[in-house]
Amino acid sequence: MYRFNSKIFAIPMILFQHHLVEIEYENHNKLLQVRWTDPLSSLEYRQVLKKIVEIISAYQVKSLLLETYNSPSNDQKNELWTNKVFLNKYQKVGLKKIARVSQDYASNEFRVNGWLEEEPHTGVEFRQFKYQFEAYDWLWEQDKQYLRYGT
């Protein structure tokens, strides 16, 4: 176990590793972390998202951290497919928060938040960040409140 901003982390388990993506799970905080290591085709992107949903369901993941520096985020077909198909599935398997770390965070956050406003029934909170440490802080915001109030 190790600490980051006074939060305890367990050493993550690598659940899936491929030349395109790495998926790690950290049980203590129910966190799934996905790192895109290379750009993917649309087919590969969709296969990875299906794998993520399977893992979220199997491990009862509550928080998802996406490091998307190399994902095909500018492909509008992939974005539309992700928004319409997968955000609803994430909610159905119990996911509460998605944090995305990306260099083009402002434009992507605007597009995804626009969709979430149109489809508020998803129940999944989404935030876009430029830096990983900001994403971690937001993902455990609720935990900090519990610690502060002792509940």
Topology diagram in text:
Blueprint: E1 2-4, E2 7-9, E3 13-17, E4 21-26, E5 31-36, H1 42-59, E6 63-67, H2 76-92, E7 97-101, H3 105-118, E8 125-129, H4 132-139, H5 141-149
Parallel strand pairs: 5-6, 6-7, 7-8
Antiparallel strand pairs: 1-2, 3-4, 4-5
Helix pairs in contact: 1-2
Describe this structure in a few short sentences.
The protein is α/β, with parallel strands linked by helices and 151 residues long.
| Overall mean confidence score, pLDDT | 75
Strand content: 25-35%
Largest sheet: 6 strands, mixed
Number of alpha- plus pi-helical segments: 5
- The beta-strand count equals 8
The termini sit apart by: 23 Å
List the main descriptive attributes of the protein structure presented here.
about 150 residues, about 25% strand, single chain, 8 strands, Transcription Regulator spoIIAA
Description:
The chain is an alpha/beta fold and 151 residues long. It has one domain: Transcription Regulator spoIIAA. The protein has five helices and eight strands, in the order βββββαβαβαβαα. The strands form two sheets. Strands 3-4-5-6-7-8 form a six-stranded mixed β-sheet, sandwiched between helices. The protein has a two-stranded antiparallel ribbon with strand order 1-2. α1 runs parallel beside α2. The longest helix has 18 residues. The two termini are 23 Å apart. 23% of the residues are buried.
